[in-house]
Amino acid sequence: MFLARITGSLISSHKVQTLVGQKLLIVEPLRVDEADGGALKGTGRTFVVVDPVGAGEGEVVLCVQGSSARYTPETKTLPIDAAIIGIVDQVQVKANTVFKKSDE
Amino acid sequence: MFLARITGSLISSHKVQTLVGQKLLIVEPLRVDEADGGALKGTGRTFVVVDPVGAGEGEVVLCVQGSSARYTPETKTLPIDAAIIGIVDQVQVKANTVFKKSDE
Amino acid sequence: MFLARITGSLISSHKVQTLVGQKLLIVEPLRVDEADGGALKGTGRTFVVVDPVGAGEGEVVLCVQGSSARYTPETKTLPIDAAIIGIVDQVQVKANTVFKKSDE
Amino acid sequence: MFLARITGSLISSHKVQTLVGQKLLIVEPLRVDEADGGALKGTGRTFVVVDPVGAGEGEVVLCVQGSSARYTPETKTLPIDAAIIGIVDQVQVKANTVFKKSDE
Amino acid sequence: MFLARITGSLISSHKVQTLVGQKLLIVEPLRVDEADGGALKGTGRTFVVVDPVGAGEGEVVLCVQGSSARYTPETKTLPIDAAIIGIVDQVQVKANTVFKKSDE
Fold it and tell me: Would you call A19 helix, strand, or coil by DSSP?
């Protein structure tokens, strides 16, 4: 899985029927920057994910890729390859708290 | 999933039997360029996708990769690893509309 | 899926039993070079693919990756992750014919 | 599979129901640096993995990606794409011991 | 699939139960270097693979990635994402023999 920040959303009125009603969000994967004490940095990459957990723009989330994105009750059998599986509250790297949702 | 622009198409007269009749399109994945206010930029990569939604050249589409490309009614059990699952109308990044189909 | 040119082949006399009789080809994935009018360029990457369609060295082919490589009649249940699914006759990019098999 | 060092962990109180109780760890994939006698070097990449084997921070572990992450008794049918499948005791590269857990 | 050279091995005494008895090898993927007449060059990347064919250190092998690594009799249902499926005897690129096992 990977950490990502939700940066946006998209509208697609003409799409595969089973995707109607699914929220489609744009996320930027994050990486731990060891050179900067473990701070979370953007990678510049762009993914579109389905959101079965109700996250909001700007939040840091945990995303799953591949066939496993179909293994939540809300996404079963959907033609999707990426989904949010959790909203991240806190990230620890080598005993440092490098991200805390309540600080944002 | 990833955003992409349809840049072309290909003809293959000699192919796996189950692919006969499938439209094969060439797409270039796009990324959100945060340095440029979230504008959609080409990545220079090239994918071939099956199109079960009827998109046209030049359009921005949402694509799925991997086994999930087989999870639409039109692509079930096909030997494909990428498909268009939606035509994109609008993309929002940090409250800015960075893409609008009607503007193109 | 991706476009690739067949550049070679390999011999493996000691292999998994189910692969006996399968042709193993070496391919180089291609990309559309928009800076060069959409010409197909090599990427320098190397894949080994199974060939259920009978392609020949030097040809441009369409390849599938991942679990879907097992979704042709000839490759069903094989321990393979890449297969040729079509021989490419022609590629169009933005109204230009950037590849034509008969020209080669 | 890939070698990785566990660098941290994360807390997600709002997540997909089936993930409740699963330990989520942050790992950095390692590579063998042939230029340095086969020493294990960090790659700078960041993955989040589920840990069914009980590893601890700082340990070098073996990780599996993709659908196979669901093939342990503890992770069956979970919406995850990466899991630890072993704690690494020793790594040999070209007759040199490049990593030994007891030396750390 | 990809070509790789076996560069080492690893020991993991504490691992998922189904992996007990499986040989875990370290491999470096190879690529065909067209600039050098098709010679096989290391890519600097590192993978860990299961070996159901009995290959030895230093040998060039054919590896499969993803769910298909579970499609050999020896690896069925294992939580692995990469396996050796053949020992390579010879590689031809554009009519040149760029690798021959018996020459090594």
Answer: helix
d(CA C104, CA D20): 58
Name residue B63's beta-bridge partners. B2, B84
The whole-angstrom distance between E14's CA and the closest CA on chain C is 27
Q: What is the pLDDT of residues A73-98, one digit of tens each?
A: 999 999 999 999 999 999 999 989 99
User: pLDDT tens-digit profile of B56-93?
Assistant: 999 999 999 999 999 999 999 999 999 999 999 999 99
CATH code: domain of residue C67 = 2.40.50.220
Q: Is the pTM of this model over 0.95?
A: yes
Q: Give every CB contact of residue E36 below 8 A, 6+ residues apart in sequence.
A: none
Judge whether A99 and D18 are in contact, CB under 8 Å.
Answer: no
The answer on pLDDT for A100 being more than 90 is: yes
Contact between B48 and B25 (Cβ < 8 Å)? yes
Cite the DSSP H helix spans in chain B. none
Question: For residues B5 and B60, what is the distance between their CA atoms, to the nearest angstrom?
Answer: 4
Residue A2: both structure tokens together: 């990977």
**Cβ E2–C49 below 8 Å, yes or no?**
no
Main-chain phi, psi angles of C70, to 5 degrees: -90, 5
Q: Does C34 score more than 90 pLDDT?
A: no
Nearest one of A5, A76, A75 to A46, comparing CA atoms = A5
Range of the domain at B96: 2-103
Nearest to E43 by CA among C47, C61, D90, C30: C47
CA distances to B27, D18, D24, D72 from D77, in Å: 33, 9, 16, 9
C39 touching B (Cβ < 8 Å) = no
Cross-chain residue pair E72–C18, CB shorter than 8 Å = yes
Number of folded domains that form chain B:
1
ipTM: 0.96
User: C touches which chains (3+ CB pairs under 8 A)?
Assistant: B, E
pLDDT band at residue C103, thresholds of 50, 70 and 90?
Answer: confident
Give pLDDT, residue E34.
Answer: 87
CB E90 within 8 A of CB E32: no
Q: What is the CA radius of gyration of chain A?
A: 14
Copy the structure tokens of residue E93: 């690129």
d(CA E63, CA B36): 41
